[in-house]
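Protocol step 4 of 5: obtain the predicted structure for the target chain.
Materials: sequence only (see below). No template structures provided, no constraints applied. The aim of this step is simply to have a reference model before the mutagenesis design in step 5. Sequence pasted as it appears in the construct record:
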Amino acid sequence: MAERKKIRLPLQEVQPGMAVAEPICLEGEKNVFLAEGALLTERILELLRLRGQEAVVVYVPAANDASFAMQTLFRETYLFSPLMKLESCL
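Step 4 output (structure tokens):
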């Protein structure tokens, strides 16, 4: 399995589907808001913006991580693409 690298990104550069590399604790909260490994969604990113979070640490795949490349391709093709026409599936 290819090794993943951690990188701290400003919140405006974080994309839905990225995985959290370190637990996210919000200012003034005792509990972890988001655990390591959780996938960030647009809704979670919006909540982080509203709570004043400026940056998060996410995983960045190694250049040779074929598994990550396939997951990214699937996500971009099926989850984040505009709705496909139903008649093309019939």
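Step 4 remarks: The CA atoms of residues 17 and 79 lie 10 Å apart. Residues 77-90 have pLDDT under 50 and may be disordered.
Proceed to step 5.
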